[in-house]
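pinging the channel bc i need a second pair of eyes. not urgent but kinda urgent?? the chain im working w is below, pasted from the shared doc
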Amino acid sequence: MDTTYFGRKFGIMVFRDYHNKKNIRFFEVDWETNELYRLGVRAIQEQWYIVDAIVCDWRRWVLDWFPQFPVQMCHVHQKRIIRRYITSKPKHESSIELKDITLMLWKLKKNTRMIWLDDWHRRYDEYLKERSENGKQFMHERIRKAYRSLSTNAKYLFTYQEYKGVPNTSNPLEAEFSHMKTHTRIHRWLARTEKVKLCFEFLSRTIK
């Protein structure tokens, strides 16, 4: 499940059946909220769909709202988070190594990755603790945040290894969003109501 936006005007929230490659529920939204995702999952269940797991970009509240479902954080979104903190071309050795660990998400088993991450933290622990001259701020806050993101999200990055058939990314849905926006750009002049109808028609008939 995910939401894509058309500028600041509106968004389309979509729930996709990964195995059947079918969009089974979608809404027009001003912005994505916990309640809307909850209502979407409930609507899917009322259609007699069995929800085996939830794959999303990462919303911690999912764990509280849907504790009955395994949750998989999208690997691509995790990589984007790390890139946002340390950039795509980090210069310091610690950042370069952390980027390499992140890029190996696709190939590593959970235990192997945690060993690598723990070893990384042990070797750069003193570096991460360095503070400014006044002692009030950490000097390397961005890489600290990158590490914190990886270590905190670790148990939700490998759900797909524990549950057969669960994908490790929401990329198919993002690809759907990309095609949908290409389709709607042809009709730039449409008002919001008509553009939403066009999106719904596209999502209803597109199966990949």
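so The CA atoms of residues 6 and 181 lie 8 Å apart. and Residues 75-162 form one domain. — does that match what u expected or am i reading it wrong
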